[in-house]
Amino acid sequence: MDGVLELILCDIGNTTFHLLINENEKRYLLNEKLPAFNEKVYYISVNDKGQDSLKSTHNDIVNLENYIDFETSYKGMGIDRKVACYGIIDAIVVDAGSAITVDIMSNSEHKGGFILPGFKKIENLYTQISSKLDFDFNTKVNLDKIPLCTQDAISYAILQSIIEPIKNIREKQQIIFTGGDGEFLSKYFENSIYKKDLIFENMKRIINANNCIA
Amino acid sequence: MDGVLELILCDIGNTTFHLLINENEKRYLLNEKLPAFNEKVYYISVNDKGQDSLKSTHNDIVNLENYIDFETSYKGMGIDRKVACYGIIDAIVVDAGSAITVDIMSNSEHKGGFILPGFKKIENLYTQISSKLDFDFNTKVNLDKIPLCTQDAISYAILQSIIEPIKNIREKQQIIFTGGDGEFLSKYFENSIYKKDLIFENMKRIINANNCIA
């Protein structure tokens, strides 16, 4: 590699292209046209349409899925989850985006995981069920008290439906959060950290581990 | 009252009219036309359109919301939840329909509760997030093992997002399940029972407690 400054990384999710352009983050919707880049674009993708769009506008691209060294007995694990867990020794890895993926790494081995719907997806679901359940999420709801109004009854349930399944599988390991709702969720767990750029950091590690590909 | 045999009960929910006609259960979608009845119809409703529809086709109707004796400091509790909890002394009451309401009764007092999205609503949400998450629910997923494939990762998460928040508030009391998914969910809890007709049974109790209204 010629140096970190010229790196362009692209994480294609279910709703956006998430780019790191010379250390600057930028998001584009999947139906938006990406700017032209002179540099090579290293990418991962869980969305075929997004990948096709990148391919149609850029020639010099490298799919890091072909280079990641990540073994697991889990069948069908998305590349975003593999990258999030890459190089982690002992931790629960939670990527809280449009879905919330929860994975267990133990002694550098992937032990499995589960997939919850994303925070905002659950929030919007209540309105679909009944207009009487159309409330803004109360970020200050007290989880130590049984709710006594509908706004809290919904806010409490959304949070607990995410928090309790994670607590249930936790032994004493650290929890690493990433993704749009990761910082907010991390506040509900002791011994947890929020790594905003976990995916990009690990994409760089994969590039460095395969320096032949630069 | 002239006798139980002539009772017509109607529980208007968010998707159906649920009727008990002379002890026979029957469901109609909210946009379907109800048959004509000669008898008085005792009803509860959480859906204004459904209630309007009933009113437009039947004259001899009694809204049991006006007769239920149920005190709580919870603000905005739906009549269906009040009826489900009516007369319960010590239990957690779970009505698992298009929403899953969870309420705590302790010493005949309502202590509060919370509202999860319904089972099938959550299931359908995954497909909305990504076509790669479009799997049938695995009813036999093992909750004691961390999932190792996407179908199990989703099935496990759906179940745990419902089960764990309920376990978290449970002390040692019984759990009473009702609603379409109540029987299935009850199997995951010790000291629980499924009362298919909890709402109708309690509607009858309210009628009996107010025998002047017959």
Characterize the structure shown.
The structure is a homodimer of 214-residue chains. In chain A, helix 2 packs across helix 6 (198-209) and helix 3 (119-129) crosses helix 4 (150-169). Chain A has helices at 48-57, 79-85, 119-129, 150-169, 182-186, 198-209; strands at residues 8-12, 16-21, 24-29, 41-45, 61-63, 91-96, 99-106, 109-117, 174-178, 192-194. A 5-stranded mixed beta sheet of chain A has the order 3-2-1-4-5, with helices on both faces. Chain A has a 5-stranded mixed beta sheet with strand order 8-7-6-9-10. Chain A is α/β, with parallel strands linked by helices and 214 residues long. The N and C termini of chain A lie close together (5 Å). Chain A is globular, with a radius of gyration of 19 Å. Chain A has 2 domains: 4-66, Nucleotidyltransferase, domain 5; 88-197, ATPase, nucleotide binding domain (Nucleotidyltransferase, domain 5, 2-Layer Sandwich). Chains A and B meet through strand 7, strand 8, helix 3 and helix 4 of A and strand 7, strand 8, helix 3 and helix 4 of B.
